[in-house]
Amino acid sequence: MENMQMNSYTIYDIRKRVLWAGQSASLAKAVAEAVRAGVNLKKAYLPKADLKGANLTGVDLTDAHLKGANLSMANLTRATLIGTYYGGMDLTGANLSGADMTAANFGGAIMKGANLMYGNLTRAGLIEADLTGANLKNANLTAANLFQADLTNANLTNVNLKNANLKGAILTGAYLKQ
């Protein structure tokens, strides 16, 4: 697959290009193949996409739209997710360690057991997000909005919560050691 640089990439564009190249029809595999081929996924439009278990290490999804997508168990290590819209999506068990999620919108997202270690969540919207059992060790949550977020049993060791909104957040069993 040749190196493609496109804005506003959609599910259909990715699947069509990968199928054209004779690759798997699985969307998770198609997106991973597109990333390996150097496809620019900035501003990608992938609502309700099934990307369960996809390897998206280092992907740039700046300003992408992934509302309702399934990224459970996906590897997004060191990904760039600045301003990305993830409302209502499933990130259960996903690896987002070292990812830049500045100003990303995770409102209502399911992030149970997600690995967010060393992640940058500055100004991120996590309103009503389910972060039960998530690992946020050493994450930056400066000015993040965690209004009514569920952080039950979350690891918040050395988390920067400066100016974060925790009103109504559930912190039962959360580990808050500095």
Write the layout of secondary structure elements.
Layout: H1 11-20, H2 27-36
Helix pairs in contact: 1-2
What's this, in brief?
The protein contains 2 helices and no strands.
Written overview of the protein:
The protein is low in regular secondary structure. The chain has one domain: 3 Solenoid (Pectate Lyase C-like). It is 11% helix and 0% strand. The chain is built from two helices and no strands. Helix 1 packs across helix 2. The N terminus is likely disordered.
> Which percent bin holds the helix content?
10-25%
Q: Counting H and I runs of at least 4 residues, what is the number of helices? A: 2
Residue runs with pLDDT of under 50 for 5 or more positions: 1-9, 17-25
Q: Mind summarizing the main beta sheet?
A: none
Instruction: Quickly count the domains.
Output: 1
Query: Which fold does the CATH topology refer to?
Result: Pectate Lyase C-like
CATH architecture: 3 Solenoid
Overall pLDDT confidence:
85
- Helix and strand pattern: HH
The N- to C-terminal Cα distance equals: 47 Å
Q: What CATH first level would be assigned? A: Mainly Beta
CATH superfamily placement: E3 ubiquitin-protein ligase SopA
Structure class: little secondary structure
Number of strands: 0
Share in β-strands: under 5%
Question: What general form does the structure show?
Answer: globular
Radius of gyration over all CA atoms, rounded = 16 Å
